[in-house]
Amino acid sequence: GENVEQHPSTLSVQEGDSAVIKCTYSDSASNYFPWYKQELGKRPQLIIDIRSNVGEKKDQRIAVTLNKTAKHFSLHITETQPEDSAVYFCASYPGGTALIFGKGTTLSVSS
Amino acid sequence: GAVVSQHPSRVICKSGTSVKIECRSLDFQATTMFWYRQFPKQSLMLMATSNEGSKATYEQGVEKDKFLINHASLTLSTLTVTSAHPEDSSFYICSARVKSGGAGELFFGEGSRLTVL
After folding, report:
1. In angstroms, how far apart are the furthest CA atoms of chain B?
2. Are the C-beta atoms of B48 and B21 separated by less than 8 Å?
3. How far apart are CA A88 and CA A3, in angstroms?
4. Do B104 and A32 touch (CB under 8 A)?
């Protein structure tokens, strides 16, 4: 089955810096890659997603890139702010019904 | 976006009792719902896929007799943790996709934090 690896597990940056989180997946049939943000004790919220027919997508300070050949995708957050501090999960949709999640990255943005 | 509501948000029970968690899609019909389990500071682990009108599909290693799933209508799925033990203490989150089949955004319930004493 699909396996999603996510790195790093923790990331600390200064306010204003950029943050990059990387994920790899194993199933070449996967065609949808969302990123979720989860604040402590709350539900995960979708922040951006990308489909396999697109290489890059941007939404204000957040961007996602996808390399289907290498089977990896990355989340880029620019001009980080303290409110960006949370746990970020990448996920892959290998077909069928369920999303498979990476282990998560705890992002800490210090002011 | 679509709204998924989960209840209760917190439950504390004694060892050996059973606990039922409800997951409702409030403004859409969900033929499929997903139940995830999350331990502290860990990822979301898929437990089972709940299909309306049929038996749930459980992931490897998840005891179907322990975690009973019922998806009796297009807007409601329930997870019952039977004969709960302290190791069942966890954060349980349900989710649903608006579009049946195919890729698309997954909407999550608020989650239910179960503590078994």
Report:
1. 40
2. no
3. 17
4. yes
Task: Kindly determine whether residue B93 and residue A43, on different chains, have CB atoms separated by under 8 Å.
Answer: yes
Residues of B whose CB is below 8 A from A44 = 44, 93, 108
Token pair in block for residue B31: 């033929």
Mutate which of B26, B43, B90, B115 to test chain A, going by most A C-beta atoms within 10 A?
A: B43
Q: Tell me how close the Cα of A73 comes to any Cα of chain B, in angstroms.
A: 17
How far from chain centre, in Å, is Cα A94? 16
Examine residue A8 and say whether the peptide bond preceding it is cis (omega within 30 degrees of 0).
yes
pLDDT tens digits, residue range A69-81?
Answer: 999 999 999 999 9
Asked whether A70 and A23 are in contact (CB, 8 A), the reply is no
Q: What residues have CB less than 8 Å from A48, skipping those under 6 apart?
A: A34, A35, A57, A59, A62, A63, A64, A75
Contact B110, A43 (CB under 8 A): yes
CA A92, CA A101: separation in Å to the nearest integer?
7
Of the residues A48, A97, A107, the best mutation for testing chain B's interface (the one with the most B CB atoms within 10 Å of its CB) is A97
Is B54 part of the contact surface with chain A (CB cutoff 8 Å)?
Answer: no
**What is the tens place of the pLDDT at every residue in A9-54?**
999 999 999 999 999 999 999 999 999 999 988 899 999 999 988 8
Which strand (E) or helix (H) includes residue A65?
Answer: strand A62-67
| Nearest Cα residue to B105 out of A39, A67, A22, A43 | A43
